[in-house]
Amino acid sequence: MTTTFTALPIIDLSPLSNPNPTPSSLHQLSTDLHTAFKDVGFVYLTNAPISFSHDQIFSIASRFFSSPASAKMSLAKKMFVPTHRNTYRGYFPAQSGSDNLKEGFEIGPTPAPPSSTTDANSSINLTEPNVFPNSPDGRTMAQTTARLHAELQSLSMTLLTLLASSLGKLPTAFTSLLTDSISTLRLLHYPAPPHPLSSSTSTSTSPLTCTPHTDSGLLTLLHQDLTGGLEVLNAAGDWIQAPTVPGAIVVNLGDLLARLSGGVFVATMHRVRSFGVERYSVPFFCEPGGDAMVPGGEGGEEVRYARFLRGKMGGWVEFREEEEGEVGVGRDVGAGEVEVGA
Fold first, then answer.
1. From the CA atom positions of the chain, what is the Rg in Å?
2. pLDDT per residue over 135-176, tens digit each?
3. In terms of C-beta density within 10 A (0-12 exposed, 13-18 middle, 19 or more buried), how is residue 53 classed?
4. What is the 8-class DSSP label of residue 255?
5. Would you put residue 300 in left (φ > 0), alpha (ψ -120 to 50) or beta?
6. Distance of alpha carbon 205 from the chain centroid
7. pTM of this structure
Protein backbone atom coordinates (compact mmCIF):
# COMPACT_ATOMS: atom_id res chain seq x y z
CA MET A 1 0.00 0.00 0.00
CA THR A 2 1.45 3.35 -0.99
CA THR A 3 1.51 6.33 1.32
CA THR A 4 0.33 9.89 0.77
CA PHE A 5 3.72 10.85 -0.63
CA THR A 6 4.05 14.23 -2.33
CA ALA A 7 7.31 13.63 -4.21
CA LEU A 8 9.43 10.69 -5.31
CA PRO A 9 12.43 9.85 -3.12
CA ILE A 10 15.97 10.26 -4.46
CA ILE A 11 18.70 7.70 -3.73
CA ASP A 12 22.36 8.25 -4.59
CA LEU A 13 24.01 5.11 -5.99
CA SER A 14 27.56 6.47 -5.76
CA PRO A 15 28.67 3.61 -3.45
CA LEU A 16 28.10 1.15 -6.30
CA SER A 17 30.82 2.86 -8.36
CA ASN A 18 33.35 1.77 -5.75
CA PRO A 19 34.94 -1.56 -6.77
CA ASN A 20 34.78 -2.59 -3.11
CA PRO A 21 31.77 -0.91 -1.50
CA THR A 22 31.66 -1.15 2.27
CA PRO A 23 29.08 -3.44 3.90
CA SER A 24 27.63 -0.45 5.72
CA SER A 25 27.10 1.50 2.49
CA LEU A 26 25.38 -1.49 0.86
CA HIS A 27 23.20 -1.99 3.93
CA GLN A 28 22.16 1.68 3.79
CA LEU A 29 21.29 1.40 0.10
CA SER A 30 19.30 -1.76 0.80
CA THR A 31 17.38 -0.02 3.59
CA ASP A 32 16.70 3.09 1.51
CA LEU A 33 15.49 1.07 -1.48
CA HIS A 34 13.25 -1.02 0.79
CA THR A 35 11.59 2.11 2.20
CA ALA A 36 11.13 3.68 -1.25
CA PHE A 37 9.49 0.62 -2.78
CA LYS A 38 7.35 -0.07 0.29
CA ASP A 39 6.00 3.47 0.60
CA VAL A 40 6.05 4.81 -2.97
CA GLY A 41 6.94 2.11 -5.51
CA PHE A 42 9.01 4.68 -7.42
CA VAL A 43 12.42 6.25 -6.88
CA TYR A 44 14.91 8.51 -8.64
CA LEU A 45 18.37 6.93 -8.75
CA THR A 46 21.33 9.29 -9.22
CA ASN A 47 24.94 8.45 -10.05
CA ALA A 48 24.00 5.03 -11.41
CA PRO A 49 27.00 2.90 -12.45
CA ILE A 50 26.37 2.89 -16.20
CA SER A 51 28.59 4.37 -18.91
CA PHE A 52 25.84 6.07 -20.95
CA SER A 53 24.65 9.64 -20.38
CA HIS A 54 21.02 10.60 -20.93
CA ASP A 55 22.05 12.58 -24.03
CA GLN A 56 23.74 9.53 -25.54
CA ILE A 57 20.69 7.35 -24.92
CA PHE A 58 18.24 9.83 -26.42
CA SER A 59 20.57 10.34 -29.38
CA ILE A 60 20.19 6.63 -30.19
CA ALA A 61 16.40 7.00 -30.09
CA SER A 62 16.18 10.24 -32.05
CA ARG A 63 18.47 8.97 -34.83
CA PHE A 64 16.36 5.88 -35.29
CA PHE A 65 12.97 7.59 -35.20
CA SER A 66 14.12 10.30 -37.62
CA SER A 67 14.69 7.59 -40.25
CA PRO A 68 12.29 7.46 -43.20
CA ALA A 69 9.05 5.63 -42.49
CA SER A 70 9.95 2.99 -45.08
CA ALA A 71 13.21 2.22 -43.27
CA LYS A 72 11.43 1.84 -39.95
CA MET A 73 8.67 -0.30 -41.44
CA SER A 74 11.30 -2.64 -42.90
CA LEU A 75 11.91 -3.66 -39.25
CA ALA A 76 8.23 -3.75 -38.24
CA LYS A 77 6.78 -6.71 -36.41
CA LYS A 78 4.77 -9.32 -38.26
CA MET A 79 1.54 -7.88 -36.84
CA PHE A 80 2.11 -4.76 -38.95
CA VAL A 81 3.84 -6.35 -41.96
CA PRO A 82 2.56 -9.94 -42.36
CA THR A 83 5.51 -11.02 -44.53
CA HIS A 84 7.99 -10.26 -41.74
CA ARG A 85 9.21 -13.00 -39.40
CA ASN A 86 9.92 -10.95 -36.24
CA THR A 87 6.95 -10.98 -33.84
CA TYR A 88 8.28 -9.55 -30.55
CA ARG A 89 11.42 -7.54 -31.30
CA GLY A 90 11.59 -4.65 -33.72
CA TYR A 91 9.52 -1.62 -34.70
CA PHE A 92 5.88 -0.78 -34.09
CA PRO A 93 4.21 2.32 -35.57
CA ALA A 94 1.86 4.66 -33.74
CA GLN A 95 -1.62 3.16 -33.43
CA SER A 96 -4.39 5.35 -34.78
CA GLY A 97 -7.27 5.76 -32.35
CA SER A 98 -5.09 4.77 -29.39
CA ASP A 99 -4.73 6.71 -26.16
CA ASN A 100 -1.04 5.77 -26.22
CA LEU A 101 0.01 7.47 -29.44
CA LYS A 102 3.63 6.43 -29.74
CA GLU A 103 6.01 4.58 -32.01
CA GLY A 104 8.57 2.24 -30.57
CA PHE A 105 11.50 -0.08 -31.16
CA GLU A 106 12.04 -3.08 -28.90
CA ILE A 107 15.38 -4.74 -28.23
CA GLY A 108 16.13 -7.92 -26.32
CA PRO A 109 19.37 -9.39 -24.98
CA THR A 110 22.35 -10.18 -27.21
CA PRO A 111 22.69 -13.00 -27.97
CA ALA A 112 19.05 -14.04 -27.85
CA PRO A 113 18.24 -16.53 -25.06
CA PRO A 114 17.34 -20.15 -25.83
CA SER A 115 13.76 -20.74 -26.91
CA SER A 116 11.18 -20.96 -24.17
CA THR A 117 9.17 -24.16 -23.96
CA THR A 118 6.06 -22.06 -24.65
CA ASP A 119 7.32 -20.37 -27.83
CA ALA A 120 6.29 -23.18 -30.18
CA ASN A 121 2.62 -22.82 -29.22
CA SER A 122 2.38 -19.05 -29.55
CA SER A 123 2.28 -16.57 -32.40
CA ILE A 124 4.70 -14.40 -30.40
CA ASN A 125 8.29 -15.65 -30.08
CA LEU A 126 9.59 -14.07 -26.87
CA THR A 127 13.15 -15.29 -27.47
CA GLU A 128 13.62 -14.31 -31.10
CA PRO A 129 16.80 -12.42 -32.10
CA ASN A 130 16.86 -8.66 -32.52
CA VAL A 131 16.45 -6.94 -35.87
CA PHE A 132 18.42 -3.88 -36.98
CA PRO A 133 18.96 -1.94 -40.22
CA ASN A 134 21.36 -3.72 -42.58
CA SER A 135 23.78 -0.81 -42.79
CA PRO A 136 26.87 0.51 -41.03
CA ASP A 137 24.63 2.72 -38.85
CA GLY A 138 22.45 -0.29 -38.09
CA ARG A 139 25.42 -2.37 -37.01
CA THR A 140 26.63 0.46 -34.79
CA MET A 141 23.16 0.73 -33.26
CA ALA A 142 23.12 -3.02 -32.61
CA GLN A 143 26.49 -2.89 -30.81
CA THR A 144 25.63 0.21 -28.79
CA THR A 145 22.20 -0.96 -27.66
CA ALA A 146 23.58 -4.41 -26.78
CA ARG A 147 26.01 -2.73 -24.39
CA LEU A 148 23.28 -0.48 -22.95
CA HIS A 149 20.96 -3.46 -22.47
CA ALA A 150 23.71 -5.40 -20.68
CA GLU A 151 24.56 -2.49 -18.37
CA LEU A 152 20.93 -1.92 -17.40
CA GLN A 153 20.46 -5.64 -16.81
CA SER A 154 23.52 -5.63 -14.54
CA LEU A 155 22.20 -2.62 -12.61
CA SER A 156 18.82 -4.33 -12.27
CA MET A 157 20.50 -7.42 -10.83
CA THR A 158 22.30 -5.29 -8.25
CA LEU A 159 19.05 -3.60 -7.24
CA LEU A 160 17.26 -6.96 -6.99
CA THR A 161 20.05 -8.32 -4.80
CA LEU A 162 19.77 -5.34 -2.45
CA LEU A 163 15.97 -5.63 -2.33
CA ALA A 164 16.08 -9.36 -1.59
CA SER A 165 18.52 -8.74 1.26
CA SER A 166 16.27 -6.01 2.65
CA LEU A 167 13.48 -8.60 2.98
CA GLY A 168 15.70 -11.07 4.81
CA LYS A 169 15.82 -13.34 1.77
CA LEU A 170 18.87 -14.89 0.15
CA PRO A 171 20.63 -12.30 -2.06
CA THR A 172 19.87 -14.51 -5.10
CA ALA A 173 16.15 -14.89 -4.32
CA PHE A 174 15.13 -12.63 -7.23
CA THR A 175 18.16 -12.75 -9.52
CA SER A 176 17.84 -16.54 -9.77
CA LEU A 177 14.80 -15.86 -11.98
CA LEU A 178 16.96 -14.06 -14.55
CA THR A 179 18.49 -17.14 -16.19
CA ASP A 180 17.82 -16.69 -19.93
CA SER A 181 16.13 -13.38 -19.11
CA ILE A 182 13.95 -11.80 -21.80
CA SER A 183 14.36 -8.22 -20.55
CA THR A 184 13.39 -5.52 -23.05
CA LEU A 185 14.99 -2.19 -23.90
CA ARG A 186 12.28 -0.08 -25.49
CA LEU A 187 12.96 3.12 -27.45
CA LEU A 188 9.81 5.29 -27.52
CA HIS A 189 8.89 8.39 -29.49
CA TYR A 190 5.76 10.41 -28.79
CA PRO A 191 5.34 12.79 -31.75
CA ALA A 192 4.11 16.30 -31.09
CA PRO A 193 0.31 16.49 -31.49
CA PRO A 194 -0.83 17.83 -34.87
CA HIS A 195 -2.54 20.76 -33.18
CA PRO A 196 -0.75 22.71 -30.42
CA LEU A 197 -2.37 22.82 -27.01
CA SER A 198 -4.40 25.88 -26.13
CA SER A 199 -2.63 28.45 -23.99
CA SER A 200 -5.41 27.95 -21.44
CA THR A 201 -4.57 24.24 -21.04
CA SER A 202 -3.14 23.60 -17.58
CA THR A 203 -0.82 20.83 -16.45
CA SER A 204 -3.74 19.05 -14.79
CA THR A 205 -5.96 19.15 -17.89
CA SER A 206 -3.43 18.42 -20.66
CA PRO A 207 -4.20 15.21 -22.56
CA LEU A 208 -2.68 11.85 -21.65
CA THR A 209 -0.18 10.16 -23.97
CA CYS A 210 0.11 7.13 -21.72
CA THR A 211 -2.94 6.01 -19.75
CA PRO A 212 -2.86 4.87 -16.08
CA HIS A 213 -1.20 1.50 -15.63
CA THR A 214 1.20 -0.58 -13.59
CA ASP A 215 4.11 -2.47 -15.12
CA SER A 216 4.06 -6.26 -15.23
CA GLY A 217 7.61 -7.48 -14.61
CA LEU A 218 10.26 -7.06 -11.92
CA LEU A 219 11.68 -3.55 -12.33
CA THR A 220 11.41 -0.75 -14.88
CA LEU A 221 14.40 1.57 -15.31
CA LEU A 222 13.31 4.70 -17.16
CA HIS A 223 15.31 7.41 -18.88
CA GLN A 224 12.89 10.29 -19.50
CA ASP A 225 13.77 13.42 -21.45
CA LEU A 226 13.45 16.99 -20.20
CA THR A 227 9.84 17.19 -21.38
CA GLY A 228 8.61 15.29 -18.33
CA GLY A 229 4.92 14.49 -17.93
CA LEU A 230 5.20 11.42 -15.70
CA GLU A 231 2.66 11.30 -12.84
CA VAL A 232 2.39 8.75 -10.01
CA LEU A 233 -0.72 7.95 -7.96
CA ASN A 234 -0.47 8.16 -4.16
CA ALA A 235 -2.69 6.55 -1.52
CA ALA A 236 -4.90 9.63 -1.28
CA GLY A 237 -5.79 9.37 -4.96
CA ASP A 238 -3.66 12.36 -5.93
CA TRP A 239 -1.53 12.31 -9.08
CA ILE A 240 1.97 13.44 -8.09
CA GLN A 241 4.18 14.93 -10.79
CA ALA A 242 7.55 13.27 -11.31
CA PRO A 243 9.53 15.88 -13.25
CA THR A 244 12.85 15.06 -14.81
CA VAL A 245 15.76 15.12 -12.37
CA PRO A 246 18.88 15.73 -14.49
CA GLY A 247 21.00 12.61 -14.72
CA ALA A 248 18.59 10.46 -12.71
CA ILE A 249 17.00 7.16 -13.72
CA VAL A 250 13.41 6.69 -12.59
CA VAL A 251 12.90 3.15 -11.27
CA ASN A 252 9.56 1.58 -10.44
CA LEU A 253 8.43 -1.82 -9.25
CA GLY A 254 6.42 -4.20 -11.42
CA ASP A 255 3.44 -6.39 -10.47
CA LEU A 256 5.56 -9.52 -10.39
CA LEU A 257 8.12 -8.22 -7.89
CA ALA A 258 5.30 -6.89 -5.70
CA ARG A 259 3.92 -10.44 -5.56
CA LEU A 260 7.36 -11.96 -4.93
CA SER A 261 7.85 -9.57 -2.00
CA GLY A 262 4.70 -10.91 -0.35
CA GLY A 263 2.99 -7.55 -0.83
CA VAL A 264 5.65 -5.61 1.08
CA PHE A 265 6.62 -3.67 -2.06
CA VAL A 266 4.06 -1.92 -4.25
CA ALA A 267 3.58 -1.59 -7.99
CA THR A 268 2.20 1.94 -8.28
CA MET A 269 -0.20 3.24 -10.90
CA HIS A 270 1.33 5.89 -13.18
CA ARG A 271 0.53 7.80 -16.35
CA VAL A 272 2.06 10.40 -18.69
CA ARG A 273 0.62 13.74 -19.80
CA SER A 274 1.37 15.53 -23.03
CA PHE A 275 2.63 19.08 -22.90
CA GLY A 276 2.05 19.47 -26.62
CA VAL A 277 5.64 18.80 -27.67
CA GLU A 278 7.63 15.87 -28.99
CA ARG A 279 8.85 13.46 -26.31
CA TYR A 280 11.37 10.63 -26.09
CA SER A 281 11.41 7.94 -23.43
CA VAL A 282 13.61 4.87 -22.99
CA PRO A 283 12.33 2.32 -20.45
CA PHE A 284 14.16 -0.91 -19.67
CA PHE A 285 11.90 -3.71 -18.45
CA CYS A 286 13.81 -6.21 -16.30
CA GLU A 287 12.11 -9.57 -16.76
CA PRO A 288 12.75 -13.20 -15.81
CA GLY A 289 13.53 -15.98 -18.25
CA GLY A 290 10.54 -17.31 -20.13
CA ASP A 291 10.68 -20.66 -18.32
CA ALA A 292 11.17 -19.19 -14.83
CA MET A 293 8.36 -20.22 -12.47
CA VAL A 294 6.59 -17.21 -10.97
CA PRO A 295 3.42 -16.60 -8.93
CA GLY A 296 1.42 -15.48 -11.94
CA GLY A 297 -1.70 -17.62 -12.01
CA GLU A 298 -5.05 -17.17 -10.34
CA GLY A 299 -4.76 -17.75 -6.61
CA GLY A 300 -1.01 -17.19 -6.78
CA GLU A 301 -0.09 -20.59 -8.22
CA GLU A 302 3.17 -20.69 -10.11
CA VAL A 303 3.25 -20.52 -13.91
CA ARG A 304 6.04 -20.05 -16.42
CA TYR A 305 6.87 -16.37 -16.84
CA ALA A 306 6.27 -16.57 -20.60
CA ARG A 307 2.67 -17.61 -19.91
CA PHE A 308 2.24 -14.85 -17.32
CA LEU A 309 3.62 -12.27 -19.79
CA ARG A 310 1.46 -13.41 -22.68
CA GLY A 311 -1.56 -13.09 -20.43
CA LYS A 312 -0.71 -9.42 -19.94
CA MET A 313 -0.32 -8.69 -23.64
CA GLY A 314 -4.04 -8.32 -24.19
CA GLY A 315 -3.85 -4.83 -22.72
CA TRP A 316 -0.88 -3.68 -24.78
CA VAL A 317 -1.87 -1.61 -27.78
CA GLU A 318 0.75 -3.12 -30.10
CA PHE A 319 -0.24 -6.74 -29.30
CA ARG A 320 -4.00 -6.63 -28.81
CA GLU A 321 -5.02 -8.30 -32.03
CA GLU A 322 -2.07 -10.68 -32.27
CA GLU A 323 -2.58 -12.25 -28.85
CA GLU A 324 -6.37 -12.18 -28.89
CA GLY A 325 -6.63 -15.92 -28.48
CA GLU A 326 -4.20 -16.02 -25.52
CA VAL A 327 -5.25 -13.07 -23.41
CA GLY A 328 -7.01 -15.12 -20.75
CA VAL A 329 -3.92 -17.19 -19.95
CA GLY A 330 -2.48 -16.08 -16.64
CA ARG A 331 -4.12 -12.71 -16.96
CA ASP A 332 -5.21 -11.63 -13.45
CA VAL A 333 -5.09 -7.99 -14.54
CA GLY A 334 -6.99 -5.34 -12.59
CA ALA A 335 -8.37 -2.13 -14.02
CA GLY A 336 -5.66 -0.20 -15.77
CA GLU A 337 -2.99 -2.80 -14.93
CA VAL A 338 -1.27 -3.02 -18.27
CA GLU A 339 2.24 -2.22 -19.28
CA VAL A 340 2.06 0.39 -21.99
CA GLY A 341 5.40 2.04 -21.47
CA ALA A 342 6.36 5.40 -20.10
1. 19
2. 999 999 999 999 999 999 999 999 999 999 999 999 999 999
3. exposed
4. H
5. left
6. 26
7. 0.89
